[in-house]
Specification:
InterPro entries: HTH_LacI, LacI/GalR-like_sensor, Lambda_DNA-bd_dom_sf, Peripla_BP_I. By secondary structure, the chain is of the alpha/beta class. The chain has 14 helices and twelve strands. The protein has a six-stranded parallel sheet, covered by helices on one side.
Length: about 350
Amino acid sequence: MDAGRRATIVDVAREAEVSIKTVSRVFNDAPNVRPHTRDRVVKAATALNYQPNVVAQGLVGRRSYLLGLFYENPSPNYVVELQRGAVDRLRGERYRLIVLPVEQVAQVADNILSFVRSAALDGIILTPPASDHPAILEHLSAARFPFVRIAPTRSPEIQPRNITDDVAAARAMTEYLISLGHRRIGVIKGDPSHPSSEARLLGFSLALASAHLPPRLDDIDQGMFTFESGFEAARRLLARKDRPTAIFAQNDDMAAGAIMAAHDLGIDVPGELSIAGFDDSAIANIVWPRITTIHQPVFDMARSATDTLLAMLEKNPYPDVVDHPFTLIPRQSTGPAPR
């Protein structure tokens, strides 16, 4: 074979001394291929660095071998972890990942089947808020289109699901801040279209109630899971004379924005103000002080969801629910409440 030319199925057949049809059957996992013949073909393909044509394989088996990762989340750090987890599981597989970002899930919900079919997908991974959207779940379920949900908070009967307990995680973080002596804790909420935002607010409220601390509606400000929204919400919270001594932002991007707002206002973190986040995304380790946060295993959830989707497509057993534990990670952005 000429140097620099990409190996073809013809080259593999010649090297292995078999027919082109036999090579095709080997790479399509067809039955009734003798083991020693399969080994010869695989060895020849490896020697020639031959890469099977996934599209051609799909035409033979009426599959595209394409999986979709469907998301709206505006946090780039969260999205990167989702992609990393899915891609990690697909290493060595014939399937490929198609990333499908949308501005607003609600705008495509009623046309979700046309959306996934136009992308020629074999299956799809739904992330928040799509993993909770009633119309999306109804349409995909009715069409028996393969899908897996990541971090849903509603409709537990619709499976398979990869979950973590947002309520318990937010409660644990709030209890941690209370244990540091904070009695007035502000919250920066995430995008209201994401059910996880309400789940985390519920966890916060349960921790306050357990500590007999009154909830204060003016200590709750709206963000959108972005750095900029966290910055603006923190400025509003910190502009008050009776400002909170701690802020719990519902993701790390908003927590980083809150730290920047505190710096601009000359407020020491954590000496005068503690700030905590959620997700344990890359930004939590980049900003200073590093952010106390909840480690939500986004990478593991995406990898597990991809594994489940592969099992569904290959008609192998798979779990209905995979529950991923969270971890509270104290860092330098929180400390004792100021006296």
